[in-house]
Amino acid sequence: MNDILKVSGLQRSFTQGGVTIEVLRGVDLSVRTGEIVALLGPSGSGKSTLLQAVGLLEGGFDGSIRIGGEEAAQLDNDGRTRLRRDALGFVYQFHHLLPDFNAIENVVLPQVIRDVDMGTARARAESLLGSLGLGHRLEHRPSQLSGGEQQRVAVARALANRPALVLADEPTGNLDERTADIVLAEFLRLVREEGSAALVATHNERLAEKMDRVVRLHEGVLEDGSGHL
Ligand code: ADP
Ligand code: MG
After folding, report:
1. 138-157 tens-digit pLDDT
2. Smallest-distance ligand from the CA of 170
3. Alpha-carbon span 28 to 149, nearest angstrom
């Protein structure tokens, strides 16, 4: 079982005001254990829709999503919640940190939810944040951190539970170019160190080139980086 993710024939359409648009028209995608894949596509091409499906965050899809060999469609709500918690980590464009908690607490929380004891969770959070250059910002709340620092906290939070697969939706999209480059490089280094796989949506070709493989969403299907279907 070398594929942490295997998506087959994924379809998703939206109907609004009597008009139906087919956003995903049969997406096939495999991500191998430890592989970092860039999901490229212009704005509106369906990257977020695909990540939401793979993240088991939304229903309404046809097709198969297997995560670590488990077929999502065969799981009930509890099963999907468990799989999401045990196997997945998320990084969003806007970090979605909890504003009333400081940096270390934001990284501790997802671990405590999984019954990791407080001492272990804090040690893990400190180690991750330290590795991201935030050792001196542990007690700062999100509002006291720069955009790049907040996004690093979000990266640490996503990796806190050692997910087999990290899903990142434009993870540096709200940062200036220089900061985006630095945070992305740190994100990729940490994902590699941790041995996680990642699926990273971006519309930035330059950032995509830093990943192991590039796939492109085009008219609802995926092409690999060479442009072949
Ligand atoms: P991307 O992330 O690549 O910019 P999205 O996945 O956000 O693209 O959107 C793809 C298309 O699906 C867009 O045309 C968008 O308007 C449409 N869409 C996404 N979510 C919804 C929704 N909940 N209801 C209706 N249309 C949606
Ligand atoms: Mg999007």
Report:
1. 999 999 999 999 999 999 99
2. 2
3. 35
The alpha helices in the chain, defined as continuous H runs, are: 47-54, 77-87, 103-113, 118-131, 147-159, 177-194, 205-208
Q: What is the pLDDT of residues 94-133, one digit of tens each?
A: 778 999 999 999 999 999 999 999 999 999 999 999 999 9
| Token output for 172 | 């540096």
Query: Which CATH number describes the domain made up of 3-222?
Result: 3.40.50.300
For residues 211, 192, 68 and 40, what is the CA-based torsion angle, rounded to 10 degrees?
A: -20
Longest dimension (CA), the chain: 54
The verdict on the CB of residue 39 being under 6 Å from ligand 1 is no
CA 176 from centroid of its chain's CA atoms? 20
Residues 57 and 31 sit within 8 Å (Cβ to Cβ): no
CA of 51 to the centre of ligand 2 (A): 9
Going by pLDDT thresholds of 50, 70 and 90, the confidence category of residue 228 is: very low
pLDDT computed for residue 1 by the predictor: 57
Give residue 229's pLDDT. 42
Enter the pTM of the model. 0.94
Q: Are 215 and 224 in contact (CB under 8 A)?
A: yes
Residue of the CA atom closest to atom 26 of ligand 1 = 14
Q: Which residue has the tokens 């977020």?
A: 48
